[in-house]
Amino acid sequence: MSAFGRFLARSIGVSTFVGMLAVALMMVHITADVIGKFLFNAPIPATIALVSNYYMVLLAFMPLAYAESRRAHISVEVLTELFPQRVQHHLYSWVYLLSAVVFAMLTYRTWQEARISHEMGTFAMEQSTKMITWPSYYILPIGCGLMTLVVLYRFAAYITRTEDVIGDGVAPTQPPEN
After folding, report:
1. Angle between the 139-160 and 2-39 helix axes, to the nearest 10 degrees?
2. Would residue 131 count as lying in a domain?
3. Which of 46, 53, 65, 124 fits 146 for a cystine, CB–CB 3.0-4.6 Å?
4. Do the domain assignments include residue 79?
5. What is the residue range of 95's domain?
6. How many separate domains does the chain show?
7. What is the reported pTM?
8. CA dihedral angle for residue 80, residue 85, residue 89, residue 94, rounded to 10 degrees
């Protein structure tokens, strides 16, 4: 299981780097567009289309698995915090399976949509500039698919009672002693 955990950690690292790169490129691109527009009266064509169809999608979906690997997704414990630690541990672990099902369905559906967009040759028009957008549709199934693998890995670690080695090191897979 640790070989798969290392593979996931590397995959998460790559996807997170792509997300960070998207933020940096978006910042440079928008700055160059604003400078071009106001200093030289020559904005960069299709900036809004590129930002909304590529940069924003990359920075929203590529780091999904990174957040999960760090256990940094938002959670609201209204009722579960009243349960004993042991019960909470088991509930959270089974939520990994539910999350895997949801993200697997998202992966499947967004992959279908990406294929349809690819076949149609989806594009955006901005200021008489045609920009293809179908490649950005593949970002969603990649991000959701990696998230599916992470939560499946976490659930498998819970079921097999092995160490969860992705993220900030080893996370407990055994229930607390209560």
Report:
1. 150
2. yes
3. 65
4. yes
5. 2-160
6. 1
7. 0.86
8. -40
* DSSP secondary structure string for all residues of 25-86: HHHHHHHHHHHHHHHSS-PPTTHHHHIIIIIHHHHHHTTHHHHHHTT-S----SSGGGS-HH
The residues that bridge with 126 in the sheet, in sequence order, are 129
Question: Is 127 in a helix, a strand, or coil?
Answer: coil
For 123, the 3-state DSSP assignment is strand
> Is 97 inside a domain boundary?
yes
Determine the average pLDDT of the residues in 134-154.
Answer: 96
Within-domain flag for 12? yes
DSSP for 90-104, please give it.
Answer: HHHHHHHHHHHHHHH
122 — pLDDT class (breaks 50, 70, 90): very high
The tokens describing 110, both together, are: 């967004």
